[in-house]
Design goal:
Blueprint lengths: L3 E9 L16 H23 L6 E5 L1 H7 L2 H24 L4 H24 L4 H10 L3 E6 L13 H19 L5 E3 L10 H6 L4 E4 L1 H5 L13 E2 L5 E4 L2 H8 L18 H4 L2 H4 L31 H27 L7 E7 L10 H14 L4 E3 L2 H7 L30 H18 L5 H17 L2 H9 L3 H23 L5 H10 L13
Parallel strand pairs: 1-2, 1-8, 1-9, 2-3, 3-4, 4-5, 5-7
Antiparallel strand pairs: 6-7
Helix pairs in contact: 1-5, 1-13, 3-4, 12-13, 15-16, 15-18, 16-18, 16-19, 17-18
Length: 526
């Protein structure tokens, strides 16, 4: 009989990036990298638990944009072509590294990885990774939760409540379309909680959310159990808090496991290291270098002189770190059971893309943690947040404070000097969308299509990714262009509707380009 619980939550999200108007588009590779290095490797880990009959419960969130992209035929075909190109490069690397056993061993590792990915994608899952995750949910290994429609940062929509509501309701609708059931939990984008918005979550049938630690610790009234048990908002939605210790052990730049010197170095990729003439067919068509996914070095230390990656050392270190993680959770649990009159729950949420993409050994580490938890001790059990609410349906009522898991814990990442100019346009568009929904309550034909497309463009403009990219300084021009494109498309549709001059061919072109949420109903904004 366990004395407490550990709940892993892996949050999978990418912005909706699909450009059928171009034969090649760099940012689409964000999805291809995630499939290669995170989603397929983790599916193999999860399938291993099912195969070995391991009694594990783990929560993942798959955001609506990611679900829509994973089931898009165009993107599936482009991923397949990209994977073939990567395999071609891998076999070139096997020839190039002949006579250098250290490097060839790593090249063989990549060949096996990408060959297995190709087999699984086409033959095991028939290109349907969403269906693969869904079957694991039906088998009881996973609980899959949803998120806002385009990962909009909800606390900055307080001035336009209908916009926040639409993000939430459409997120639930998209989940139901892909999984044929209703979600129990909801991943608040960036863990962004604003008091009062939980009423929209309750309306959508959501049972729980995850907030950052201080969001619960500063709740009113203060929670009796701190961050180790949920509270109910007055709407009836339960709020669980992220545990600070588990977060630091994995996320910390200086103390976290992924920075260990034996792990693979992310930034040394042959796309930058090798001669241009050799690598030119595997980088951008314009000749600009990119990551290929083939990396030969380990972190080594704070030095540019990197040593060759050793998969055995890395695997052993992942096992060691898994044992250390479990040891620390047991020590944490023993302290908590001495001061609590119920079983505590330690909530450990992470970005899924950390596991495999940024931290190459992350899937191995997670596999070791789960197997050690199940086989090597009995104090701690793995659960989902739904499981905990079933065991403890009565909880304190409190109102979490506004919070996020961003820098400084509030809104600054998504509202600062680099991106504040976005919000007047977003608020204006949200109010105009409400106006359209009110003025045309029963539209049909081309007008209905135009209204639905206006709602799509607004949702796409609201993605938290654009403000985040502008703050962090990566691909800033792409983020600005995407935001301006969607706002301009929304404004163009609005003007055409109000002036009764709809251009059906233009609407059809937008429907083909921004084809997210085929089931979207503009009356969400009414």
């Amino acid at each position: 009989m366990s004395q407490g619980y550990l709940a892993f939550i892996l949050h999978a999200h990418l912005p909706f990036i699909r450009h059928p108007e171009h034969d090649y588009f760099l940012e689409e590779h964000w999805l291809f990298e995630a499939i290669n290095e995170t989603y397929l490797p983790l599916l193999r880990v999860f399938e291993g638990w099912l195969r070995d009959d391991i009694p594990v419960r783990l929560t993942i969130s798959l955001t609506p944009p990611l679900l829509e992209m994973l089931r898009d035929n165009l993107l599936q075909e482009r991923y397949s072509r990209s994977l073939d190109k990567t395999l071609e490069l891998t076999y070139k690397e096997l020839d190039r590294t002949t006579g250098n056993p250290e490097y060839q061993r790593v090249a063989l590792m990549y060949r096996d990885l990408f060959e297995t990915n190709k087999h699984d994608f086409h033959n095991r899952y028939h290109r349907d990774l969403v269906g693969a995750f869904a079957r694991l949910q039906e088998a009881g290994i996973l609980e899959i939760i949803t998120s806002a429609a385009t990962h909009g940062f909800l606390p900055l929509m307080e001035a336009a409540p209908a916009a926040a509501r639409a993000q939430i309701i459409q997120g639930v609708n998209t989940y139901q379309k892909h999984f044929g059931r209703s979600p129990q939990g909801f991943w608040l984008p960036e863990c962004g909680f604003a008091p009062g918005q939980d009423r929209f979550l309750a309306e959508a049938g959501i049972k729980y959310v995850i907030v950052d630690t201080h969001g619960l610790l500063f709740a009113a009234p203060r929670p009796r159990y701190g961050s180790f048990a949920p509270v109910y908002c007055r709407s009836g939605v339960a709020a669980f808090a992220r545990d600070m210790e588990t977060s630091k052990q994995v996320w910390s730049q200086h103390e976290g496991y992924p920075g260990d010197f034996d792990y693979r170095e992310f930034y040394r990729d042959i796309g930058y290291d090798l001669d241009w003439e050799y690598i030119k067919d595997y980088i951008q068509p314009n000749g600009e270098r990119i990551h290929t996914g083939i990396k030969y070095y380990r972190i080594t230390g704070r030095t540019p002189d990197k040593q060759v990656y050793n998969p055995d050392w890395a695997r052993d270190k992942a096992a060691l770190h898994a044992g250390n993680f479990l040891f620390n959770r047991q020590a944490q649990l023993r302290h908590l059971t001495g001061i609590m009159d119920r079983k505590p729950i330690i909530v450990a949420p992470y970005d899924m893309e950390l596991f495999g993409h940024w931290w190459f050994e992350g899937p191995q580490w997670l596999d070791y943690v789960v197997r050690k938890t199940v086989y090597d001790q009995s104090e701690l059990a793995l659960v989902t947040l739904s499981d905990y609410l079933q065991e403890y349906p009565r909880n304190q009522v409190a109102t979490p404070t506004m919070s996020s898991w961003g820098w400084k814990g509030y809104n600054e990442v998504w509202l600062n000097g680099s991106n504040e100019w976005l919000y007047p346009y977003l608020y204006d568009a949200a109010l105009k969308m409400q106006e359209l929904a009110r003025d045309y309550p029963a539209a049909d034909g081309v007008l209905r299509r135009a209204l639905n497309q206006a709602a799509r463009e607004l949702l796409l403009a609201q993605s938290s990714d654009w403000a985040f990219i502008m703050k962090t300084g990566t691909v800033i021009e792409y983020a600005r262009r995407r935001f301006k494109t969607h706002i301009n498309r929304f404004t163009g549709i609005y003007d055409q509707i109000k002036e009764n001059r709809l251009e059906e061919q233009w609407i059809a072109d937008l429907e083909a380009k921004d084809n997210i949420f085929a089931d979207l109903d503009y009356r969400l904004y009414a």
